[in-house]
Amino acid sequence: MPKIPPARPGMDLADVDTPALLLDLDAFERNLQRMRESLAGRNIMLRPHAKSHKCPQIALRQIALGAVGVCCQKVSEAEAMVEGGVPDVLIANEVVGMAKLRRLAALAKQAKVTVCADDAGNVKDIDAAAHEFGVVIDVLVEVNVGANRCGVEPGEPALKIAQAVAACRNLRYAGLQAYQGAAQHFRSVGERRTAIAAAVDAVKTTLALTAKAGLPRGKVTGAGTGTYLFEAASTVYDELQAGSYIFMDADYARNDWTESGIPRFEHSLFVYATVMSRTREDIAIVDAGLKASSVDSGMPRVADFPQAEFLKASDEHGVIRMNGSSGFNLGDKIKLIPGHCDPTVNLYDHYVCVRGGKVEALWPITARGAVW
């Protein structure tokens, strides 16, 4: 069954079918400019994370404003970016298994591709795939700098993986992946600063050992929307991987940004929903539930109606308590701010790009479902 887009260019916003994923182009473009301005004069590059948007059109706009390339999480996501014209991708993740590694090596014949590793056996497998396809692949050693997810421990364990990479004929040791993901949503500025200071110390320890062993410094890459200026100020990081700054979500809005130096980026991404039932006085039911907005980081917020509260979601329904708000008549359309932008984007085929109350464009979310 062919999928019918929820909108077409030139359509009034009020006529867009729901649920739809709206991108406010004015706010989105201001966010792009704010990021660029915040890094002006700093000796550091931006490599935004494409897992946030999964859209080559957005990636190319970021590159046009100075980004060195983009990050991806999966090989399939990187394939979508390269097919869409992105020339430089970092898979900021481990890639395990020869089926995926052969696709990675094939992609390296089309674009500059870098990958992370935290295991010597995996390093050998990457080298074998690169040899099979006749390419040289850049490899970053992922260091656990506090997120306690992927990544080898800093210091000697990281050095051993770096040496394993350097010993391979078809790999190039390219530096360190040092992303403190857990710190991005620590609520206080002080907590985030402290976490990144610890990450920087771990990186410095590892760099001292790799230098002593005669390895090239390579680059240090990491950081996210909640902390990126702290990593930038360290003078240790060379690339910043912030991604959510283009959209912002309800969870990021809960962070304290006071005296952080990080700009207050705007909400530009919304789930558009219709009031579909009004049988109770202070409750409105909308047609956007779990299949329209991710709730792993909390419920969506109701934009433009600060009193209203999104109480709960089921598969196809969202329950809103109005708390005295007006404007929730049957058939009314409202905007919801997703709790977590990344998995919400993965639920849709298109961004409905809106400016001045009109649909300006539909951008396909090319890497939707690219999780392998």
Describe the secondary-structure layout.
Layout: E1 20-24, H1 25-39, E2 45-46, H2 56-64, E3 70-72, H3 75-83, E4 88-94, H4 98-107, E5 112-117, H5 120-133, E6 137-142, H6 156-166, E7 171-177, H7 189-212, E8 219-222, H8 228-233, E9 239-240, E10 269-280, E11 283-286, E12 301-302, E13 309-313, E14 318-321, E15 333-337, H9 341-345, E16 350-355, E17 358-364
Parallel strand pairs: 1-16, 2-9, 3-4, 4-5, 5-6, 6-7, 7-8, 8-9
Antiparallel strand pairs: 1-10, 10-11, 10-15, 11-14, 12-15, 13-14, 16-17
Following the backbone from N to C, one meets helices and strands in this order, namely EHEHEHEHEHEHEHEHEEEEEEEHEE
> Under CATH, the topology of the largest domain is which?
TIM Barrel
Question: What number is the mean pLDDT?
Answer: 96
Q: How much of the sequence is in beta strands?
A: 15-25%
Please report the distance between the alpha carbons of the first and last residues: 24 Å
Major sheet, described briefly?
A: 9 strands, mixed
CATH homologous superfamily placement of the largest domain: Alanine racemase
Question: In a nutshell, what does this entry contain?
Answer:
The chain is α/β, with parallel strands linked by helices and 372 residues long. Helices cover 28% and strands 23% of the residues.
